[in-house]
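Handout, section 3.2

Students often ask what a structure token actually looks like in practice. Rather than define it abstractly, here is a full record for Lysophospholipid acyltransferase family protein. The first block is the sequence as you would receive it.
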Amino acid sequence: MYYLMRFAETVVPLIPSSFHDAIAQVLAILFYYLRIRQRMAVEKNLRHILHDRPVKEWMIKRLIWRTYRKFALCFLDTTRIPFFQNKDLDRIFEDQATENLQRALSYQRGAILISLHLGNWDLAGVLLGHLGFPIVAVTERLEERYLNFFKKRRERTGIETILTNETMKLIRALKKNKVVVLVADRDITGKGKVVSFFNGKRKIPLGPIKLARRFKVPVVFGYLPLHDTARYLGRIEPPVFLGEDLTENLKMMVGWFERVIRRYPDQWFVFEDEWIE
């Protein structure tokens, strides 16, 4: 996957955008047929998401294919991030984020933006930076070559990267009234809490909630899905201050995840089976 990302970052910007949909079709076919275990995980995700709807088998298969196709489109756009100009970002983006994020920062406490693996979360930070917001992306410790790949590309677009265990850097960023972005629908560290998720169970990290409660930081929920009227829709919900009840806070966050995933079931790009039987 690493070499595919490096190859795509070099080649895709040289190809006219009118060909990108065709390239995405080819990539989707490769992902679909070569990564069977991941395809089974996508199918399982969809069955949980759609458990309360009458869905036929052909519909599930179509949604799996659409998931791969949309993932390929987001992947291609992600490789182009260092080459986007302001006019490109304005053209592909419908902004429904600025007002609520400005409200969150008006408290002068920083803000925690909780997102999920839906749509193009890498491009989301770039678009927020383009709108003038000071963005800090929190990421798990990846293999060194992957970490350097993403870190260098983010820094080129003005995004600061902090690892999940770099707590003091996180605190300093909030004190400087920056937006700390946490993708929180997967428990990467293994220290999360098992919760009901659709009609199954998954582990969800507690870090974003604990951080927001400890420092009394406003929380906003945001996402960047592929959209109809523009290529992407940037959406951020109104800011909230979390209460002391950890269970209620977690329930609210999971409920938000479920609502957004139901709206875009073919854009929840989680290719690992993390359901707890």
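Discussion prompt for tutorial groups: The chain has a mean pLDDT of 87. How would you have guessed this from the sequence alone?
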